[in-house]
Design brief:
Elements (H helix, E strand, L loop, with lengths): L14 E2 L2 E2 L57 H4 L10 H11 L10 H11 L9 H11 L9 H13 L6 E7 L12 E4 L3 E3 L18 E8 L3 E2 L12 E3 L3 E12 L2 E8 L28 H26 L26 E7 L8 E6 L4 E6 L7 E2 L3 E2 L4 E8 L5 E7 L4 E7 L5 E8 L4 E7 L8 E6 L4
Parallel strand pairs: 6-10
Antiparallel strand pairs: 1-2, 3-6, 4-9, 5-8, 7-8, 9-10, 11-12, 12-13, 13-14, 13-15, 16-17, 17-18, 18-19, 20-21
Helix pairs in contact: 2-3, 3-5
Length: about 475
């Protein structure tokens, strides 16, 4: 989209107006809103902001204070809300007027003209070499004290009031990318907070463009399960953009990470509602998160009569069943005298993650194949008449195996199919008549495969396969 900016701009341009900032070694993955008119020729949609200023990594937010005091500011027109920033941002009044002139008198989503213009001002790119409002604001949110943030409070009051009035997007996966390897900073299980306004995209293909992540060099891609993003397209300086904006104080847990290709690292984050307030509501009655709708059966006017009706139906059914079957039920009930015996344990590989059963060696006893993600192997356990299993030699798989299934091609030919998430491949292992396995072949598939199924999809005699790629949807 037109609003996207070059993610790898001039990193030395970090001083502007009367403020000088130390060079930041990290990356902030958001959207760059600025390009000249000549540059805005069919560019791709939203991506992340590797600003022309810095490469700034996502802050974990361990020392930052919650954003509270801005909410105490009065709600002012955009011109007045930006007045404390006149000495911070170059020629601010020009861009404020631009935002107001582009805003209709009756904006969509029930926003006032000043509220809609506050969002539009955030998306405008200042003329080079000056830093834009979004750049300065997000830098200050992540790198400076809350006292240094104070000049932005009145604008934040208006901006967040506008954003919170927009409907929450339904839970969905959004993407951000940075041109660095940040995998070491995001071990699974880590809790983190993004303190800036974070621009994201729902279109993963955008990141292949060389202006953004490209296809070479160190890159980190964040896959975020978002629960309260806001779509700002109707109020953006660039109306062709489908940007999802995450609010400051977005709290997440690292779910997993893997590397599907050389120098490409994908980190899966899940947004959660924090235990404490990280972002104060901009006004009373505002909602940062979607309202949980109560099911119809829990509404007060239905609870008592519905409960009575259900109880009466259950009683009537039970009584009718007893009376109707008493005469015919003359045989003594079957009594279990030998329930399931105690289970037996067997030594297998580390971190077993998937299992499939079948008749691997041609006898009538069920055999098992256990996929071990820890040592990237498969154990074959052959069954016998006594219910005892023996372990055969392990067979290696690809990197980060996550799923195994059995595919019977014919009466005499069967394969185990292993999904290798990190490699982006599936491995076929031929099952010999004695139950051992031989490597057959690998097939490259999409990014982040997690499951596979086989069958005759086109009704011929050749086996087909369908692979689910979680990171490409």
């Amino acid at each position: 989209n037109n609003s996207l900016h070059n993610l790898n701009g001039d990193e030395n341009e970090i001083a502007n107006q009367d403020y000088t900032y130390a060079h930041d070694e990290n990356v902030d993955g958001t959207i760059n809103y600025g390009e000249t008119e000549k540059q805005r020729v069919a560019p791709p949609p939203v991506v992340e902001e590797n600003k022309q200023v810095t490469n700034e990594a996502e802050k974990l937010g361990t020392d930052e204070a919650p954003l509270i005091e801005y909410a105490n500011e009065p709600l002012l027109p955009l011109v007045d809300a930006c007045a404390p920033l006149n000495d911070v941002l170059h020629d601010l009044s020009y861009y404020v007027n631009m935002a107001l002139e582009e805003t209709p008198e009756e904006p969509p989503d029930g926003l006032t003209m000043d509220e809609s213009a506050a969002i539009r001002l955030y998306t405008i790119e200042w003329e080079a070499p000056h830093r834009s409002l979004y750049s300065m604001l997000n830098y200050t949110l992540k790198n400076c004290s809350r006292e240094d943030l104070r000049p932005y409070f009145r604008y934040m009051k208006l901006f967040l009031t506008a954003l919170v009035k927009l409907p929450c997007c339904p839970p969905l996966t959004v993407w951000r990318g940075v041109t660095k390897n940040l995998s070491i900073d995001f071990p699974p299980g880590t809790r983190l907070t993004w303190w800036a306004f974070s621009s994201t995209t729902t279109e993963l293909t955008v990141l292949e463009n060389n202006m953004y992540l490209g296809t070479t060099g160190a890159r980190t891609l964040f896959s975020v399960e978002s629960i309260n993003g806001r779509t700002i397209r109707n109020h953006s300086h660039f109306v062709t953009e489908d940007e999802i904006l995450l609010l400051p104080g977005t709290h997440m847990i690292v779910q997993s990470q893997f590397s599907p290709a050389t120098d490409l690292y994908i980190i899966h984050l899940k947004q959660v509602i924090p235990d404490e307030t990280l972002l104060e509501l901009p006004f009373e009655g505002a909602r940062l998160y979607p309202k949980l709708e109560r099911p119809w059966y829990r509404k007060k006017r239905f609870v008592i009569p519905l409960a009575l009706l259900i109880t009466m139906c259950i009683v009537a059914t039970v009584v009718g069943a007893i009376l109707g079957t008493r005469a015919a039920n003359k045989e003594p009930p079957y009594v279990f005298t030998n329930p399931y015996p105690s289970g037996t344990t067997f030594d297998i590989g580390s971190f077993p993650i998937s299992l499939v059963s079948g008749y691997f060696n041609g006898d009538k006893y069920v055999d098992l194949a256990i996929l071990n993600s820890g040592d990237q192997s498969i154990d074959i356990l052959l069954g016998n008449a006594n219910g005892i299993y023996s372990t055969l030699i392990q067979t290696d798989t690809g990197t980060d195996p996550v799923f195994v299934t059995l595919c019977n091609v014919s009466d005499n030919t069967s394969y185990l199919i292993v999904v290798n998430r990190n490699d982006g491949t599936i491995t076929l292992l031929n099952i010999n008549k004695d139950g051992t396995l031989d490597y057959a072949t690998d097939f490259p598939v999409g990014v982040g495969p997690v499951s596979v199924v086989c069958g005759h999809f086109d009704n011929n005699s050749i086996i087909d396969m369908a692979v689910l790629n979680s990171f490409e949807n």
